[in-house]
Amino acid sequence: MRKHRIYCKSVSEPKDVFMLDKDQSYHIVKVLRLNTDDEIEVFDGMGSSAICKIIEAKRSLVSLNRISSLNITKPSDKVFSFILPFIKKDNFHFMIQKLCEIGASKLIFYKPDLIDQSIAKKDISKLFAKSNDVIISACKQCGTNFLPETLMVGSLNDAIQLLDNNFEVYVFDINASSVFNSHDIKSKNFVSITGPESGFSDSEYNLIEENNFKVRLLGNNILRAETAPIVIASLVQNHFDKI
Question: What is the per-residue DSSP string for 46-111?
Fold first, then answer.
């Protein structure tokens, strides 16, 4: 039977005994209903994991004892980055969850010019903060020991400024004339840029043209803002790893 997985940075620290935070403790005791002497797998989000035994189980305080050696996973030689717009909350969280499961390395979130009016006046920093919980939950489920890096920026231009010449950048848009073919990818440092429900603004199009990014169409069907990145991630991951 597969052991339950929990995220905690402390698992890779020198001490064998460590405590979980309040949220993780509550999840173990009230959701998973685990108790003293039960064993779980704990990962640190940076590539390491170990089997641990529960030595104290209270609603807001769970203590663990690491009983196995650390399993250290080497980071992938591929970096799949996604520059993504803020979209409606439920769709946003669904998109992040699936990108983590497929194997995204880095997620850069930007506020698009044509942002959906349902979130235009809301504090999107709260939406970003909640994304961390979604990411941890997805990584628990899919078995990866790496949490993708996440960044929040104010605009598409700010996101682009974070890129360097080592990245191969593709922009996906329904108005593109060329269809995307994953076999055309030359670099393992792949970046995907997608827009919100209403598409890119004129100024964002100008920015894309100025940077000479490769603009591609995914296919004949128009995909939702949260679906397109998932399809892209699947195609790229399959191209390199044959998932």
Answer: BSEEEEEEEEEEETTEEEEEE-S--EEPPPPS-EEEEEEE---HHHHHHHHHHHHHHT-SEEEEE-
